[in-house]
Amino acid sequence: MKFVVLALLATVATAAPQYAAPAPAASRYGDSSEEVPITRHDFILGDYGGYKLDVKTGNGIVVSQSGSPDGPEGAVVKTGEYSYTAPDGTPVVVKFVADENGFQPQSDLLPVAPAFPHPIPQFVLDQIAFAATEEPRRYSYDD
């Protein structure tokens, strides 16, 4: 009987979950889990909800942005830029605006839509303009 109890206790002990820290996930830049120091972090909170943020890290990432509640219904409008060096050595600089029209990045490295393959005929442009004037009339309740 003692043997059965001891065997049961050993089985339960080995079946208990083993808690350990998860291994760091591999990134597309390698298996490094090196900590990168923040060498500059300046945050200035202005009057009426405006702010300015400047951050620089030890691996060359630079972020600079500012914002203010100038959007519709007090939404914060942000402008700024960030830069870093891509794994292949290419310097990346992205300037952006984030407002009521969404996030609008600008960079020489971002893809650009191809030009329209042919000119739009004038009769098509006239029809589009006509349709735009008809749309408000369709839903007008003044008639």
Describe this entry's structure for a reader.
The protein is an alpha+beta fold and 143 residues long. Helices cover 22% and strands 31% of the residues. The chain contains two helices and six strands; from the N terminus they run αββββββα. It has a six-stranded antiparallel sheet, with no helix packed on it. The termini are far apart. The mean pLDDT is 82.
Report a brief summary of the structure.
The chain has 143 residues and is α+β, with helices and mostly antiparallel strands.
The helix fraction, in percent, is 10-25%
The strand order across the widest sheet is 1-2-3-4-5-6
N-to-C CA distance: 96 Å
Global outline: extended
Structural class comes to: alpha+beta
Helix count, DSSP H or I runs of 4 or more residues: 2
Rg, please?
29 Å
Secondary-structure element pattern, one letter each = HEEEEEEH
- Average pLDDT, rounded to a whole number, is 82
Largest sheet data: 6 strands, antiparallel
Percent in strands: 25-35%
Low confidence ranges: none
Tags for this model:
143 residues, 22% helix, alpha+beta, six-stranded antiparallel sheet, extended, 2 helices
Question: Secondary structure elements and their pairing?
Answer:
Elements: H1 2-15, E1 38-45, E2 51-57, E3 62-68, E4 77-85, E5 91-99, E6 102-106, H2 122-138
Antiparallel strand pairs: 1-2, 2-3, 3-4, 4-5, 5-6
